[in-house]
Amino acid sequence: MVGLVFDSLHTPGTPVATGRRSPAAAATAPGPAAGPAAAPGRRPGTVRFEAVSKTYPSAAGPVRALDSVDLAIPAGAIFGIIGRSGAGKSSLLRMVNRLEAPTSGRVLVDGAPVDALDTDGLVALRRRVGMIFQHFNLLAAKTVRQNVALPLTVAGVPRSAIGPRVAEALRLVGLEDKADTYPSRLSGGQKQRVGIARALVSDPEILLCDEATSALDPETTLAILDLLRDINRRLGITIILITHEMHVIREICSDVVVLERGRVVETGPVWRVFGAPEHPTTQALLEPLTRGLPPDLADRLQPLPTPGGSAILRITWAGQGTPDLSGLAVAAGTPVRLLQAGIERIQGHAVGRMLVAVPGADPDVEARLRALGGAVERLGYVAPEAEAG
Amino acid sequence: MTPQMIDRLWQAFLDTGLMVGVSAGIAVLAGLPLALFLVISGPGGIVPAPAANRVVGAVVNGFRAVPFIVLLVALIPFTRLVAGTTIGVWAAIVPLAVSATPFFARIAEVSLREVDAGLIEAAQSIGCRRRHILAHVLLPEALPGIVAGFTITVVSMIGASAMAGAVGAGGLGDVAIRYGYQRFDTTVMMVVIAILIALVCVVQFAGDTAVRRLRAR
Description:
CATH class of chain B: Mainly Alpha
Largest sheet of chain A: 6 strands, mixed
Number of helices of chain A: 13
Keywords (chain B): Cell membrane, Membrane, Transmembrane, Transmembrane helix, Transport
Number of domains of chain B: 1
Organism (chain B): Methylobacterium oryzae CBMB20
CATH superfamily of chain B: MetI-like
Domain ABC transmembrane type-1 (chain B): 13-205
Mean pLDDT of chain B: 92
Low-confidence stretches of chain B: none
Oligomer: heterodimer
Distance between the termini of chain A: 20 Å
Largest sheet of chain B: none
Radius of gyration of chain B: 20 Å
Helix content of chain B: over 70%
Transmembrane segments (chain B): 12-40, 55-75, 87-105, 184-207
Order of helices and strands of chain A: HEEEHEEHEHHHEHEHEEHHHEHEEHE
Low-confidence stretches of chain A: 1-41
Largest interface: A-B, 29 and 20 residues
CATH superfamily of the largest domain in chain A: P-loop containing nucleotide triphosphate hydrolases
Number of strands of chain B: 0
CATH topology of the largest domain in chain A: Rossmann fold
Radius of gyration of chain A: 24 Å
Structural class of chain A: alpha/beta
Number of domains of chain A: 2
Protein name (chain B): Binding-protein-dependent transport systems inner membrane component
Shape of chain B: elongated
Structural class of chain B: mainly alpha
Number of strands of chain A: 14
């Protein structure tokens, strides 16, 4: 929750180069022809879901896990799929490398349907699509080096070529010194790094992350997300991740799709979905990241103005501009007190909320504040002694 | 005890070792593929074959249901076919192996089934074919459990081999019955019991050590 006002001159809607990946690169990446992130000789790594449905039989009758999902994931994106448990996100992800098959509809990787593949084709596809898991799924009977080498070993890569590639993959994840250790001796974060190295050693164009940070502590989660972002930027690999944690999406994703009971309920660039969540599910998932009204203020909030009191306004930014603090006072025509604020920059867009107290009961103040770019909502009034909140 | 008796005990010890050793080897060679088949062809396995799975499962259960002493007699025609004789150590090895194979297969099956489905999925995701999954995931990951199960199999076979005297195969159990029970020679029986206890302890210790080594990584 930093970056209150970095550049008040920044024009609304224009992505600004920040530490984060530019959303424009992902959003405008073309189809299978040539992604901007694609290195020569590398296929771009696009994924399309076309009317994908999945029905499971169960004791209580058929369960519809996915319901005609249409989705296009551009090459080089970090694409997030979020939803509650049982929303169908895991099924959707596992259809990309066909660990699961759809009941109807098609899944296309780089324009080729994966449903039509025979065993050889499927094995070839899986070598182009890496995957990491919530519980890491490392082989306990093999050393780190043997785990990372396995995709190459089973692909029949000559032993002399395996060594350097394994070493390179381990260097990429920062675990060169653990090559001869068994996974049981590693921490959760290190295990996931081994998982990442194993997924990357065959030089895939797509990396699937199945709740890859859900079993890790917050600090390790951030380190793993940093690594994934770095891999995306340096290698141009399309990353598709599923999670139930919104902060993971905020941290690294360029685009997000929200699933609820097997249906896509919201999709778009992360800054827009975070700034102006439309569906109740999205709003509920964002709840932990959103500050509500402080309880002491909520207790004193009254529907009608008090003499000498203030109006309490909530200003919401959803990427339409950046808060101009002096402009706020000018527009209000009176000094404005800042009660609470949480503004973040997501992909160069200011997203968040401010809670301000404006003395008096001027009914036109919302309209004037709205001109600054945010959405303004009058929550109520407080008596003078309470406004400092 | 006379030197002849010591000789006799030594010979019996070797006979028991030979019977148990050879049939344990056969039990592993036949039981492990059987266990693998039961696991991979079962529900949720990597090569589902429900009908064949049920048939093999029923056959395994059938052999497990027959007491060894009954099997020993019932298998006599088969033993003659395989070993060319119905008496002696080799005649005992056939029913011992036939009895130990389904026993070991079921124990190994449990260990194989305990291999996390996530590991198989991870192997599939990196482009492993079925044979790779067997060689790199199922067998190595289940190995500690399989070794522990093999130890149990060998110990129970040492017990079963005592009945091999019924087909004149000798062995420690046979000596104990003939001298201890039929001739009231309590000393011989006590010595045999001591040898059997020591043998089982050694086998169990070796098995436990192997399992601990495998799990320590």
